Amino acid sequence: MSPILEVEDLYKRFPISGSRRYVQAINGVTFSVGAGETLGLVGESGSGKTTVGRCIVGLTELSAGRIRFKGEDISKPRARWPRHLLGKIQLVFQEPGESLDPRMRIGRSIEEPLLALKVPPSERRALVAEAIERVGLSREMLELYPAELSAGQQQRVAIARAMITSPELVVLDEPTSALDPTARAEIIALLMKIQAELGTAYLFISHDLSTVRFISHRVAVVYLGMIVEQGDVGEVFAAPRHPYSAGLLSAVLLPHPHFSLESSIRLEGEIPSPINLPQGCFLASRCPLAIARCRQEMPPPDNLGGGHMVHCFRHRDVASMDHASDTFAEFQREAERILAGQKTAGPVCNLGGTSNG
Ligand SMILES: Nc1ncnc2c1ncn2[C@@H]1O[C@H](COP(=O)(O)OP(=O)(O)OP(=O)(O)O)[C@@H](O)[C@H]1O
Ligand code: SF4
Ligand SMILES: [Mg+2]
Description:
alpha/beta; Rossmann fold; disordered C terminus; binds adenosine-5'-triphosphate
């Protein structure tokens, strides 16, 4: 897949008011997303996932680095993007309330992005009707207000609103974490259907590793504003090579009593402050494999082939240690069998509450 999005050595520092110090939120992030591909972005709270997403859609200004969309530089704020790129990259938030104005009828909310593109009214009406049906809602709902819809229906409307400009890339920031398991599964199935029909690429940000495993082609694991491991999602989940990825997988709560975890990698202690980042590997204070060198030097990226990249001096030792991921992979296959069965019987899948913080 040729990349449509290329993020290169991205840094973001937020100034702290009344101080000369900064929150070092993003610390050299590099990745790409191919046309029609889903890249999952996972990591603990505060690791920088939303900030990366906001930089891509031009809502947060970069401190350093470069972002290109189909070869064009979009490192500047969205207001300064070339006109022909408007509508090509969209964002869906965790809370549909962030995308939908409570005082605006659904039809008007879905239509709004077309106004900036100066689409004529007759064309707008047809596109709105098509958009609401694409997300599985009826045209009658166009007259309703957000409060008259369930949370799942609101998120469908937010997706219709994002898709109406025919974007080639959508950043989905925790789009299912405010939903119950049934609505969550329905939204995932909807996103996959849309991707199959329209070839839209997704950057899918989530804490929910089961959902990320299910929807993504590749995954990037973020820790303290760095991607510590990225690669094919099946490979990274089945055989993680970074202690942080292995630790995240071992912290997943498997909902099925048939499965249990015997991980040999558990992360300990608190996440260091992004205001005062440690020297060397950012994970050294929490990593059971840390050696003296880890506290002095930042491990460089190691390319394991097939796009699998890891930043760890001891990734070969991790490969031979981790058992949790095998159990996780087995659980995932079971979840996929359940989902495949439900896809034929009806729209609902339930991947369970497999989240971690
Ligand atoms: N506008 C801001 N001003 C100052 N600091 C910020 C700002 N936005 C984010 N941060 C800080 O940047 C870091 C990354 O935050 P971000 O919201 O990107 O993380 P996240 O991975 O999306 O977390 P979560 O999973 O909780 O949504 C955090 O330390 C956060 O406090
Ligand atoms: S480089 Fe060292 S501290 Fe960092 S993840 Fe690898 S073993 Fe752990
Ligand atoms: Mg976030």
